[in-house]
Design goal:
Length: 278
């Protein structure tokens, strides 16, 4: 492939690199950006949802896009380097318009517990590698391999746990706080080159991971609680989040940088009211 300035990262050569692309929010984002703004898709996944990964591949092809689903544990620097090399072979340099960090793999528990839910060092390291450090690993690999297209968008996903207390999620909150700092510093380092690095914060959405953690009865209670909390009277959907990621790829969103973009729909506005006036 040519590496001329006129062809770098333009037209049909632009790709979305999505970590965690086989299910949930990541899969929805892959489907959305393949249609609008029309990006090819390089999706990284662990292989837990093979049927869903195949569906993502079909949807991208149906949209007329190229797609490669790459199975690996995306949380290590070695995986980041290998994945970017694989993408460069099919896409060429300067092709990544959008990088989305949508992988999860956090441990829940208590820091001082003496039981099986103790957050020991291995769980801490694993959670931070997956939820925070890997954003840096993949960004470093993309820059080192000259893979970012002009005005590339790098996006981490954030939740509301950093701002509140939810039993057993302290390690998730801490790793998400680290991710926010990484986004701010990378925004400074890449901003002068024309790239944009942001966090998209949204509330609870129904995903396969959520269904794996909660029973159907608990999920029903979860939906009822969010219907009371959210001004819209319902939970947000992964499709809504995914469509907004497509918006962030556009020129209109080009001034967002180092930002935590609130897409919670006002989810936390009524918390105190619900506690005091149940």
């Amino acid at each position: 492939m040519s590496d001329s300035g006129e062809q770098r990262g333009t037209g049909e050569r632009q790709w979305a690199l999505i970590l965690g692309a086989s299910s949930g929010t990541g899969a929805a984002i892959a489907h959305a950006v393949a249609n609008k703004p029309g990006l090819n898709v390089f999706g990284v996944h662990r292989g837990r949802y093979l049927d869903s990964a195949a569906q993502v591949e079909r949807q991208a092809k149906d949209a007329g896009r190229r797609v490669l689903m790459w199975q690996a544990d995306a949380s290590t620097p070695e995986a980041a380097e290998a994945g970017v090399r694989a993408l460069r072979e099919v896409a060429g340099p300067g092709a990544v318009k959008l990088f989305v960090h949508s992988i999860a793999g956090a441990s829940v528990g208590r820091f001082l517990s003496e039981g099986e839910d103790r957050l020991h060092a291995k769980r801490v390291r694993r959670t931070f590698d997956t939820m925070a450090h890997s954003f840096v690993y993949w960004t470093q690999a993309l820059v080192a391999s000259d893979m970012l297209a002009p005005e590339a968008r790098l996006l981490g996903l954030q939740n509301t746990l950093k701002e509140t207390h939810l039993t057993n999620t302290g390690l998730i909150s801490a790793s998400k706080a680290a991710l926010e700092m990484y986004v701010r510093y990378l925004a400074m380092e890449l901003g002068g080159l024309g790239h944009r690095v942001n966090l998209l914060k949204f509330g609870t959405v129904m995903t396969p991971a959520l269904k794996h953690v909660y029973t159907p009865e608990a999920l029903e209670r979860l939906e009822e609680a969010h219907a009371r909390m959210n001004p819209a009277g319902r939970m947000c959907t992964v499709e809504e989040v995914a469509r907004f990621v497509g918006v962030l790829c556009g020129e209109e969103a080009g001034w967002f940088n180092g930002a935590t973009i609130d897409y919670t729909g006002g989810m936390t506005l009524r918390l105190l009211d619900l506690v005091l006036n149940p």
